[in-house]
Amino acid sequence: MAWTWRFEKSDGTEVQPAVEPEEFSTQGDAESWIGEVWRELLEGGAEQVFLYEDGSRIYGPMSLNAES
Fold first, then answer.
1. What is the distance between the terminal CA atoms of the chain, rounded to a whole angstrom?
2. Within 10 Å of residue 25's Cβ, how many Cβ atoms?
């Protein structure tokens, strides 16, 4: 199983993340990583994220804006 993130602007346009992610072996690892770097991702232009497991969307969009 591979867990990955998709990074987007609020209008749904995909953006390159400011911090390069890896493929994660568990959902918990993926969520821990996003919890550590979300501010850097937001500053780099990503406004929302989606979590995927082996290409299937698990959830999202999840806003990176703390006010949302």
1. 30
2. 11
Quote the pTM value. 0.91
Secondary structure of the chain: what % helix, strand, coil (to 5)?
25, 30, 45
**In sequence order, which ranges of the chain are alpha helices (DSSP H)?**
27-43
State the maximum Cα–Cα separation within the chain, in Å, rounded to a whole number. 32
Give me the pLDDT at residue 66, please: 76
Residue 42 to residues 2, 6, 15, 35, 60, Cα–Cα distance (Å): 23, 13, 11, 12, 15
